[in-house]
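thought: fold this chain, then report.
action: predict
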Amino acid sequence: MRVCGVVLAMLLGCSAAMAQDAGGITVWPKGVPPGGIKERADFGDHLLEISHRESDGRVELHKVKADVMVIQTGTATLVTGGDVIDPVDTGPNEIQGSGIKGGVKHEVGPGDVIEIPAGVPHQFFVAPGTQITYLVVKVVKK
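observation:
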């Protein structure tokens, strides 16, 4: 499966070039897409992207996509669950908000793997002067 190949390549430090080769895998050397951090790879049933934050994020809730995250660098507080405050539709099956009421705090850092099921609100808080970078695999719920 392509997702496993990418995650293993990141964790093991493989340096193969990114391209779906005859072996059917995609590799982002050192965890960065060849087109830079803003590049996304959409495979239909899942999407790969890198997220980098230097400040707090907004609440996100994906109705039909689960997020699988692998923290590459930095630390943050991730709040999950509860209810979205001031929810706004931002696209098909996507909601953002200003905060979470009644969520659970998780301290996350390099090497942590996080799975957030579809429908679960989540928000990152980044301490001043710090940052966090992480791989996100968005998996479409069937």
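thought: worth noting. DSSP finds one helix and 13 strands in the chain.
final: tokens above.
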